[in-house]
């Protein structure tokens, strides 16, 4: 009766919209509204009583959001016509969203939905949250959802009124202050949403937007969220940075105020004026020239396209790796609509600007006079002078803005009232001297010399090839970008070359870009140039400064932007300057007096310029700073850290600093004159132990290496795993104390983490202004890495004809695959600053793996070369490609036609030969231990269990291993992983110490050449079976738990008949699957399985199915799986039976369908069972399930699943868990023995994860 009444009301739009009785006209309407509300509340209470397990879900955050209402829809362009309303908002984690639907969708492809019953709007942010906004109630009591208002053009999240054209990142719009008031709806703690809507005095809206009903929004958005993870770093939208192509011409109507503008951008406070500018109280001469830049908003769709290309061409595992773009190709993608450009030009013409130049695609450079600008904007200019270069600047102190006709297209402007970054210099020779006691008299502390690092020592310590002895494989270039009047001196470089005994090679005139004064060499410039020259003297070294194209504006944006306008720039670039992100700009307001984050906006645009530069194949290195996580302005009383920019950019490689302890000063080969002729002043270091530079390290280097987390840029996916490892609970591996990490409130854990790598940052020998110095700072670390990469580039260019470009994805992959390529620095911290060190100073500690002090560590260049050359060779092989110069490879076949693959496999097993082995199985042919194919057949008559695991799933693997003991397993176990970094040494030690019956196998060092395979996921499983020393293998996933002894499966009649035993998954085999398999299958009498396969447990007898197993492996080979197999299949699952089918080999499936195991619940009066997948045999004996005891397979979410029952297959609903509805069968309880096993597994899981 209750539900019948509710259903009758739910479909009455009028009643659904009535929530505030007092605003409704008519007694009948008020009565209907009253009973509707009563029934709505009763419905939830009724459901609550029916389901004792139901619990209301509380939002993660409560706040508000500004919604701009325009009663005329799209017809107005002036943002001042929009009325701002503050709506309360609730933020939920996507997996705890309280509504179950049905939902209405007004905007296809944009995840904004409306709850059909309450008209509350749900915005699914790409960052993972769900934001719930109540409806708007007008003066007459009619209710409108915010979503339908946005879709109809009546509402917007931005004051300009621009509608969204892509998923909305809600982080910039969410304001954390909750709203309280008479018209503000309260939170309904019963339903998880709001009670009613926001009451307003607005009139009616004409809504005619069509909508689509969506029933299963949860599943749709889980898929979208997973896809976002693969897209790595996404730009965070900036307020008012919305651009949309319009079919209408831009508004070019002449402003009514005759060019006068309202003052809306504040002046820079005097304490923000950089220290290198001097000022007077005099106004600027009206006739003085002034240049400013107008930066237009970019098309977000074009940016998304550009970023998508970026991640493809910088991913070492992508077939488009190193397909660098040209400058015109990048500009073509970002080209703005001509109507927008013409509208801006029209405004300039109307206001008599004569020198207007479009640079690139979206920046105007305007040259005019002080008087002209003063008259147009009614502002006054004052003179500022650069104390180093003598250059004069003119800046205004008042606020102003451009009129709406062009203001709608402007992102920001430079050169009028801004004082951008001061680019502090990292080098300080006075604090970097290292004192060493005299060897003859160790007690004589009065006799001191300065220890130095010379290029010859650095080459040896970092295993860098000496290019003067080996020559470069290709001609390469390297350069240093300088600021602050730091000039280059050829005389200093010549003197340096003599003292380090390296043949002098001056910079070419066309490689000195920007203004230069050789009579005033800068210590930063000479350190950069000399160190790069000392490591790679055969490269063409460049000097560049901010004035590369004679464009004014000493800031990162205009400098990197102008470099993007130059065709010929060095292949590797080093930058040793920066400032805290929060001090890059000042806070500004737009014309609606809304505060905008200028730092974020400026940094976002600068990051785009860095991305554009790296897309041309240019590697950019930036020093991480010399003040730890704090600022050079900090006294350690700050409540938050100050990440350094551009070291925090996701599109550069950030370099931290290291030092040496236990230094030795022995004579070494090729000692230069700096070590012999200057011995009374300097001592050359010959060896030592490398640690992070820290204020409190034994050598007292007096500065901490910069590092931390960006406040603006989100964490790119290439480093997420490494950063997660730093923060993971390592109770099994280390003894991290509670104060190991600084307070989480001081930094953004999920921001871009830096540095990426590190290198020496102290005691570097150099010459400046004819004076010999020993200096340091991360300013030395960055050019050191840059010169190393210029050497690596020479090899890359020889092989592929292309540079390495943006290195970070390769570096983080390298850290996992080649632990000896980067030396892990585990000692040191970055708590203090270069000037302050007190007990109040907070910071991070160096640790195993990546850390925010030294990143991934320092380089072993010889090992890096060995690692990267081989994959680069693979990139140039298509079909039968030969590379005759390589002793390691002669042939590499990539099968893009599986008919040919099937034919070659069958030919191989009828007539094995070396050519076919090399062609089909190069990962065996070039295996590390020179093994042959037949070596993988296993020990005769042996049986055992194989578990694949790495660090990510080590916890659930431990549970599975312990559970096997509970179920009285008597089979031996092999734990197999892909590379040494896949399963850490600590984890290996745990297994060896506690489980004597477990054998560990590293596929990359004991079995296969991983340079071909790159085994990182599902695909490892067939190779694990092949590499196993067992002849008969039971392969189980790390999260599988058994109800019976696993050995019983070997006794199954079907296994004895065919030598294989497979289990079904839920989805049916589609006609598309069958057509694809038939397209390459040679005549076969086998029928096809009715369902897709579940590969959580697989049994294979290699003595009977060896050829088929190799076919399965081939389907999961690197190129085959990425280009063909995984385009048709979900991972490795169906490759097991398809591989056997290819070889015309019989196989067996247990004929029972998939069951469910988990917790009983209710949904719409139906009994459901939610949890994991269960498998049983023909006698309905429960065998095993995958998913374990945890609710989620992610070890970071340690919620336990309360397993109450199991049930046979019915109707599946796949979301966070698998939920099963079976109208024919009620859920079944467990036997006493089964319940005992579940209790034991539950206890084991709690012990392993310390729950």
Automatic annotation (TrEMBL):
Compositionally biased residues, Polar residues: 239-254
Cofactor needs: Ca(2+)
Gene3D superfamilies: Peptidase S8/S53 domain, Spore Coat Polysaccharide Biosynthesis Protein SpsA, Chain A
Family, per entry: Belongs to the MNN1/MNT family.
Domain Peptidase S53: 452-871
Positions that bind Ca(2+): 824-825, 849, 851
GO term, biological process aspect, one: proteolysis
One Pfam family cited in the UniProt record for this chain: Pro-kuma_activ
Active site, renumbered: 524 (charge relay system), 528 (charge relay system), 779 (charge relay system)
Protein name: Peptidase S53 domain-containing protein
One MF annotation (Gene Ontology) recorded for this entry: serine-type endopeptidase activity
Residue intervals passing through the bilayer: none
Bias-annotated ranges (Acidic residues): 219-230
Region feature Disordered, mapped onto this chain: 218-280
Source organism of this protein record: Adineta ricciae (Rotifer)
Keywords: Calcium, Hydrolase, Metal-binding, Protease, Serine protease, Transferase, Zymogen
InterPro entries xrefs: Alpha_mannosyltransferase (IPR022751), Nucleotide-diphossugar_trans (IPR029044), Peptidase_S8/S53_dom_sf (IPR036852), S53_propep (IPR015366), Sedolisin_dom (IPR030400), Tripeptidyl-peptidase_I (IPR050819)
């Amino acid at each position: 009766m209750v539900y019948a009444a509710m259903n009758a009301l739910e479909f009455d739009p009028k009643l659904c919209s009535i929530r505030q009785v007092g605003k409704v006209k008519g007694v009948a309407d008020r009565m209907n509204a009253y009973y509707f509300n009563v029934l709505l509340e009763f419905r939830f209470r009724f459901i609550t009583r029916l389901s004792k397990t139901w619990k209301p879900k509380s939002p993660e955050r409560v706040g508000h959001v500004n919604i701009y209402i325009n009663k005329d829809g799209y017809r107005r362009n002036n943002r001042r016509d929009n009325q701002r309303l503050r709506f309360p908002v609730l933020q939920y984690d996507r997996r705890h969203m309280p509504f179950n639907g049905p939902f209405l969708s007004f905007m296809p492809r944009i995840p904004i939905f409306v709850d059909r019953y309450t008209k509350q709007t749900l915005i699914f942010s790409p960052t993972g949250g769900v934001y719930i906004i109540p409806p708007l109630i007008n003066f007459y009591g009619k209710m409108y959802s915010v979503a339908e208002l946005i879709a109809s053009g009546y509402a917007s999240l931005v004051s300009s009124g621009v509608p969204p054209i892509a998923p909305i990142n809600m982080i910039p719009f969410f304001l954390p202050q909750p709203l309280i008031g008479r018209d503000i709806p309260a939170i309904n703690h019963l339903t998880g949403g709001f009670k009613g809507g926001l009451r307003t005095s607005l009139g009616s809206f004409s809504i005619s937007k069509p909508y689509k009903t969506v029933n299963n929004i949860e599943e749709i958005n889980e898929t979208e969220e997973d896809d976002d993870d693969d897209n790595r770093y996404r730009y965070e939208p900036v307020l008012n940075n919305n651009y949309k192509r319009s079919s209408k011409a831009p508004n070019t109507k002449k402003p009514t105020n005759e060019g006068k503008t309202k003052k809306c951008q504040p002046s820079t406070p005097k304490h923000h004026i950089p220290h290198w500018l001097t000022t007077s109280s005099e106004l600027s001469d009206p006739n003085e020239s002034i240049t400013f830049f107008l930066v237009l908003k970019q098309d977000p769709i074009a940016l998304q396209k550009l970023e998508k290309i970026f991640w493809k061409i910088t991913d070492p595992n992508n077939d488009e790796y190193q397909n660098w773009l040209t400058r015109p190709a990048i500009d073509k993608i970002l080209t703005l609509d001509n109507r927008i450009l013409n509208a801006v030009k029209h405004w300039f013409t109307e206001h008599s600007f004569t020198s207007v130049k479009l640079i690139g695609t979206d920046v105007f450079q305007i040259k005019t006079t002080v008087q002209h600008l003063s008259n147009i904007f009614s502002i006054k200019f004052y003179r500022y002078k650069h104390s180093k270069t003598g250059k004069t600047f003119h800046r205004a102190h008042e606020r102003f803005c451009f009129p709406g006709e062009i203001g709608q297209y402007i992102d920001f402007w430079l050169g009028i009232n801004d004082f951008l970054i001061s680019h502090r210099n990292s080098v300080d020779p006075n604090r970097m001297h290292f004192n060493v006691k005299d060897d003859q008299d160790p007690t004589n502390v009065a006799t001191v010399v300065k220890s130095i690092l010379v290029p010859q020592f650095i080459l040896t310590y970092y295993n860098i090839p000496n290019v003067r002895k080996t020559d470069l494989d290709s001609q390469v270039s390297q350069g240093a970008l300088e600021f602050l009047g730091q000039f280059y001196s050829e005389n200093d470089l010549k003197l340096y070359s003599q003292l380090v005994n390296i043949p002098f090679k001056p910079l070419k005139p066309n490689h000195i870009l920007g203004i230069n004064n050789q009579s005033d060499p800068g210590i930063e410039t000479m350190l950069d140039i000399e160190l790069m020259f000392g490591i790679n003297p055969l490269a063409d070294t460049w000097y560049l400064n901010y004035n590369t194209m004679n464009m004014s504006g000493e800031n990162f944006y205009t400098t990197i932007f102008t470099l993007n306008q130059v065709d010929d720039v060095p292949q590797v670039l080093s930058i040793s300057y920066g400032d805290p992100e929060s001090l890059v700009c000042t806070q500004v307001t737009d014309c609606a007096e809304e505060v905008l984050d200028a730092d974020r906006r400026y940094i976002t645009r600068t990051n785009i310029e860095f991305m554009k530069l790296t897309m041309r194949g240019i590697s950019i290195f930036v020093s991480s700073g010399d003040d730890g996580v704090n600022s050079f302005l900090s006294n350690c009383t700050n409540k938050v850290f100050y990440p350094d920019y551009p070291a925090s950019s996701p599109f550069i490689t950030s370099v931290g600093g290291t030092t040496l302890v236990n230094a030795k000063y022995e004579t070494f080969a090729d000692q230069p004159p700096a070590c012999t002729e200057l011995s009374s002043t300097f001592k050359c270091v010959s060896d030592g132990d490398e640690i992070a530079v820290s204020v409190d390290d034994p050598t007292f280097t007096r500065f901490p290496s910069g590092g931390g987390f960006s406040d603006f840029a989100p964490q790119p996916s290439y480093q997420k795993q490494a950063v997660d490892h730093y923060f993971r609970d390592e109770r099994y591996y280390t003894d991290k104390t509670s104060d190991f990490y600084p307070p989480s409130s001081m930094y953004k854990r999920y921001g871009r983490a830096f540095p990426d790598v590190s290198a020496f940052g102290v005691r570097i020998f150099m010459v400046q202004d004819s004076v010999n110095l020993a200096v340091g700072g991360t300013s030395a670390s960055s050019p050191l890495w840059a010169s190393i990469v210029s050497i690596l580039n020479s090899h890359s260019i020889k092989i592929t004809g292309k540079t390495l470009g943006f290195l970070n994805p390769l570096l983080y992959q390298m850290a996992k695959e080649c632990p000896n390529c980067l030396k892990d620095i585990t000692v040191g911290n970055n708590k203090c600053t270069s000037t302050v060190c007190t007990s109040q100073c907070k910071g991070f500690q160096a640790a195993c793996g990546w850390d925010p002090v030294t990143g991934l560590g320092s380089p072993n260049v010889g090992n890096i070369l060995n690692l990267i050359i081989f994959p680069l060779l693979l990139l140039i092989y298509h079909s039968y490609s030969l590379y005759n110069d390589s002793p390691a490879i002669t042939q590499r076949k990539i099968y893009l036609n599986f008919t040919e693959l099937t034919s070659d496999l069958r030919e191989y097993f009828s007539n094995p030969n070396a050519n076919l082995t090399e062609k089909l199985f190069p990962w065996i042919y070039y295996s590390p231990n020179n093994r042959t194919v037949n070596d993988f057949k296993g020990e005769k008559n042996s049986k055992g269990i194989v578990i694949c695991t790495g660090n990510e799933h080590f916890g659930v693997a431990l549970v599975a291993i312990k559970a096997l003991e509970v179920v009285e397993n008597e089979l031996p176990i092999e734990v197999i992983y892909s590379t040494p970094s896949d399963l850490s040494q600590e984890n290996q030690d745990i297994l060896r110490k506690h489980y004597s019956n477990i054998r560990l196998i590293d596929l990359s060092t004991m079995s296969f050449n991983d340079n071909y395979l790159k085994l990182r996921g599902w695909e490892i499983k067939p190779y694990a079976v092949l590499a196993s020393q067992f002849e008969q293998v039971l392969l189980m996933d790390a999260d599988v738990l058994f109800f019976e002894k696993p050995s019983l499966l070997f006794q199954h009649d079907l296994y004895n008949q065919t030598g294989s035993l497979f289990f079904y998954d839920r989805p049916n085999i589609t006609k598309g699957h069958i057509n694809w398999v038939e397209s390459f299958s040679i005549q076969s009498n086998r029928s096809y399985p009715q369902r897709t396969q579940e590969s959580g447990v697989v049994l294979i007898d290699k003595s009977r199915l060896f050829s088929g197993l190799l076919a399965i492996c081939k389907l999961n080979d690197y190129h085959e799986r990425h280009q063909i197999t995984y385009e048709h299949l979900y991972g490795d699952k169906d490759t097991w039976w398809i591989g056997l089918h290819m070889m015309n080999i019989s196989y067996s499936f247990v004929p029972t369908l998939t069951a469910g195991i988990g917790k009983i619940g209710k949904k719409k009066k139906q009994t459901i069972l939610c949890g994991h997948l269960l498998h049983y045999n023909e006698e309905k004996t429960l065998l095993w399930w995958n998913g374990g005891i945890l609710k989620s397979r992610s070890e970071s979410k340690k919620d336990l699943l309360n397993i109450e029952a199991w049930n046979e297959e019915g109707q599946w609903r796949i979301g966070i868990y698998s939920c099963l509805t079976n109208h024919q069968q009620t859920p079944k309880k467990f036997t006493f023995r089964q319940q005992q096993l579940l209790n034991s597994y539950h206890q084991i899981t709690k012990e392993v994860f310390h729950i």
